[in-house]
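Q: Sequence in, structure out?
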Amino acid sequence: MMEHIVAHSLLVCRVALLLTDRLHAHDIPLNRDLIRAGALLHDITKTRSIKTGEMHTETGAEVLIREGYPEVADLVRQHVRLDVSTENGTPTEAEVVNYADKRVLHDQVALMTDRLGYILERYGATSEYRARIQETWKRAEELEEKIFRYLDISPDQVAELIPLEQARGELADFQKWMRPKVDY
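A: Exactly. Output:
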């Protein structure tokens, strides 16, 4: 993985775990280990996809299924576009990872509107793509409302609750760990 994708994935994980821990405090049962794995690995084939043009959500899921991690694969597959998102019910692991990814622009926690602007500029080459992105973002805004109705913080407070220096230390540890591994 390129370093900036690793940095992005680590911060997505920090946002996802912050939300998970706060949801747990409000008696929302979520699998923290599954969320951690899904958030860290959500862009596992993103580097390759930049060169090949493949759908990194699909190829990332395929890698994880092949390696024996079908539950993590399901989160990776849904990190851009959820299979199902309902306004009712409590947030799911897939929804937490999906939302956390929408809040991280490169290596910074961003408002969803800022991330949307970047996504539209980067991937909105055609009117069809822009329409699909807008629909995905509409669903993400609904998801944000769903998640935060259970929390005692607002979406605007997420960035200030993530200690950036600690994330940079985790990046260095993750880079050491990743170096000898297979490149997907």
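The chain has a mean pLDDT of 89.
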